[in-house]
Design a protein that fits this description.
712 residues, binds 3-hydroxybutanoyl-coenzyme A, globular, 18 strands, 8-stranded mixed β-sheet, alpha/beta, 28 helices, 6-stranded mixed β-sheet
């Protein structure tokens, strides 16, 4: 038969193969094909057992997410799974790649599962604000016990095949076999089990769900609550699994269905699905044919072994890419290498990395004073002092040594990439790679596009970001790029709110209760208040603040007192030296009052609504300015940046998504009201006013990115 699912007979075993690239998602056509092919197998008198498998790189990796929110089309996944479970010929799922979500649920409907040893099995629905809705919350506890099921379903993280076998989820694993060999082994397995008369249905298994203490559910709730930040999905996952223990299978399935519907219809799920597709959309570079070959990155050089350089080098070796690190003196090299070593050793002592893996990673790092290593590198990343003249000197040197086709990258967080590129004879090979500190931990990578940077470099770096487990976005070469440019406006509003009458505690708690990982003042303290202070001093010397509002008197005062934040034990808050917990500090409130008095500000009560409206309005306003200037390819890239780099709650989608959700016209009115009250701190965005008039959406706006050179 034609279509994405095919049936064939081999050695008297029916083989059903799903071919729906890239990940064999369970679209309507796949569900229908699975059902049809099973009928064919059952009608085929020569077929004694049925193997279901996925063609290409994976077994089915889940329901087709793009179908969510649309009218459901028959057959539904649950019915198809029951057909496999009730089959009168034994059904065996032959797994490879990533059997996830609905895919794993199909396999649990089969009576047996066998797998390639590299397979990762999981139920990641919670990451999309959902719960497994095709029997997963009922069959997984029956197969592996409720404790592991809770862990897998509430974290969404997959387990390796070996663990799945230990826990009884798969019957056999085959060491790193090809797909052909997987099927050969599955056929041998099928013949073996044909000698049994009983073929266990997952739903009829009860041995692992009997005599379960209710404590495990209470403990799961306790464990997850501090990480919820307002999310409901994980709690619903727990309730669904509880149903597997407390209810019979039919009632448990109904309970799962009802809870799934609540999740499916929630804003939380809509936002998380937006985040999923936005991260993938960020890889698409306008004007770049997706078949254009990418540059190989097999060897890297990092210049500078300070905090940033060291963290960047760690990200590379963590993914198996060898790195040479260049420094100016052996003292600096030794110091940097020791920090890296201690960093890994701490992870080993916490049991999160094996000594063997640490040794492997360290062996991929080569500290050196010899610049000639650049000759061999596929990418050179400069991570030295944020000083234009030094960077230019370094880039001229790199240009003289690097081979043809090497990518020349700067980790600058503020400087003009085009000016750096001018120091070379190949400005089109120069790009910004703005890592966030600590670079080995933080997920975001802003790839900064100079006016001449070649498109294939951007695509290569997006792919590299994925390889080194970062989430990349492309940003234009404007002041602060995308993330920090918007953050600057957001923090300015936070500081103004405090000047006008709010407290740092109020602003932070409003932000955190809304879902931010940390409020703006807690972030200032974490990042170090001295960083902004230095920049402000430079800006003051350059008359940058002329005609603008100055919002940082309190922050300046704190810095003058050495209150640089967490590292000094005090900043906007004071920190308990042992627990590092923040506490209010009367000294800070006194400084705030002094500043208000000196500036003649009569403090007023500020509502939580105003705080949110101004914090988010500042982000959205600057985000739309970035779009209208062509410094981002699309609104969703900005969302990806904020969710992955700044602690914006993923289940709130991102600032631009929020604007569309609330309605751009409503947001624009609020921003205009704020501007009318204070025209010095709200730069004008033409785009937001246009969209207000046309009732448009930011997600539908296509920026003109053809001339990204103007630096604003
Ligand atoms: N539905 C629709 N499209 C999907 C998809 C899915 N479940 N999973 C991946 N895709 C698409 C991606 O959007 C991407 O499209 P693009 O090429 O146009 O950008 C393409 O497949 C490749 O995806 P990745 O770039 O993510 O490929 P990777 O190889 O890096 O990762 C993966 C593969 C691990 C399968 C990853 O895509 C993934 O985690 N997918 C989501 C899995 C998931 O959440 N499954 C559960 C779905 S909900 C469910 O099953 C409900 C059920 O319980 C009823």
């Amino acid at each position: 038969m034609s279509g994405p699912v095919t049936y064939e007979l081999r050695e008297n075993i029916g083989i059903i193969t799903v071919n729906n690239p890239p990940v064999n998602a369970l679209s309507q056509a796949v569900r229908a094909g699975l059902s049809e092919c099973l009928k064919e197998a059952l009608n085929d008198s020569s077929a004694e057992a049925v193997i279901v498998t996925g063609g290409g790189r994976t077994f089915m990796a889940g329901a087709d997410i793009s179908e969510f929110g649309k009218p459901t089309m028959d057959p539904d996944l649950n019915s198809v799974i029951f057909e496999y479970e009730d089959s009168n010929k034994p059904t065996i799922a032959a797994l490879h790649g990533t059997p996830l979500g609905g895919g794993l649920e199909v396999s649990m409907g089969c009576q047996y599962r066998v797998a390639n040893s590299k397979t990762l099995l999981g139920l990641p629905e919670v990451k999309l604000g959902l719960l497994p809705g095709a029997g997963g919350t009922q069959r997984l506890p029956r197969l592996v016990g409720p404790e592991l099921a809770l862990e897998m379903i509430t974290s969404g993280n997959p387990i390796p095949a070996e663990k799945a076998m230990e826990e009884g989820l798969v019957s056999e694993i085959y060491n790193n076999v090809s797909h052909e060999e997987l099927i050969d082994n599955a056929i041998i397995f099928a013949k073996k089990i044909l000698t049994n008369n009983t073929h266990p249905k997952s739903r009829e298994r009860t041995e692992k769900i009997s005599n379960i203490s209710p404590d495990i559910f209470d403990n799961a709730i306790k464990k997850i609550t501090p990480r919820l930040r307002g999310r409901k999905g994980p709690l619903r996952c727990i309730e669904a699994v509880r149903g597997a223990v407390d209810l019979n299978f039919e009632e448990g399935i109904k309970n799962e269905r009802d809870l799934f519907k609540l999740c499916h219809d929630s804003d939380e799920s809509e936002a998380l699905i937006h985040s999923f597709f936005s991260e993938r959309m960020a890889n698409k570079i306008p004007g770049m044919d997706k078949d254009t070959p990418l540059r190989p990155i097999n060897k890297a050089v990092v210049i500078g072994c300070g905090t940033m350089g060291g963290g960047i080098a760690m990200s590379f070796v963590n993914s198996g890419i060898p790195v040479s690190i260049i420094e100016t003196t052996s003292e600096f090299l030794d110091k940097g290498m020791n920090i890296i070593k201690n960093n890994y050793a701490a992870t080993v002592s916490k049991g999160r990395l094996s000594q063997k893996n640490m040794d492997k990673r360290m062996s991929l790092l080569t500290p050196t004073l010899d610049w000639d290593v650049i000759k061999e590198a596929d990418i050179v990343i400069e991570a030295v002092f944020e000083e234009m003249e030094i960077k230019k000197e370094i880039f001229t040197k790199i240009d003289n040594l690097a081979k043809e086709g090497a990518i020349l990258a700067s980790n600058t967080s503020t400087l003009d990439i085009d000016e750096i590129a001018d120091a070379t004879n190949r400005p089109e090979e120069v790009v910004g790679t703005h890592f966030f500190s600590p670079a080995n931990v933080m997920k975001l990578l802003e790839i900064v596009r100079g006016s001449r940077t070649k498109l294939d470099i951007l695509a290569t770096l997006m792919s590299l970001a994925k390889k080194i487990k970062k989430v990349g976005i492309i940003a234009g070469n404007c002041d602060g790029f995308v993330g920090n440019r918007m953050f600057h406006q957001y923090v300015m509003q936070a500081h103004l709110l405090v000047e006008e009458g709010a407290t740092p505690e109020q602003v932070d708690s409003v932000a955190e209760n809304w879902g931010w990982a940390m409020g703006p003042f807690a972030v200032n303290d974490l990042a170090g208040n001295d960083v902004g202070w230095l920049i402000r001093k430079r800006h003051k010397a350059e008359n940058y603040y002329e005609g603008k509002k100055y919002a940082s008197d309190v922050a300046d005062r704190l810095c003058e007192l050495g209150r640089f934040g967490q590292k000094a034990g005090k900043g906007f808050y004071k920190y308990d030296p042992k627990t590092r917990k923040r506490e209010s500090d009367p000294e800070v409130h006194k400084i705030i009052e002094d500043v208000r008095r000196e500036k003649g500000v009569n403090p007023r009560e500020i509502s939580d609504d105003e705080i949110l409206s101004r914090l988010h309005g500042a982000l959205i306003n600057e985000g739309t300015r970035i779009l209208e200037e062509g410094h981002a390819f699309r609104a969703s890239d900005i969302d990806v940046c904020y969710v992955n780099g700044y602690g914006f709650a993923a289940h709130r989608g991102g600032p631009m998504w929020q604007a569309d959700k609330i309605g751009v016209n409503k947001v624009a009115k609020e921003i205009n009201n704020h501007r009318n009250a204070d025209n010095l701190s709200w730069p004008e965005s033409k785009l937001i006013n246009q969209l207000e008039e046309s009732n448009g959406k930011l997600s539908e706006f296509i920026p003109d990115t053809s001339n990204p050179s103007k630096r604003s």
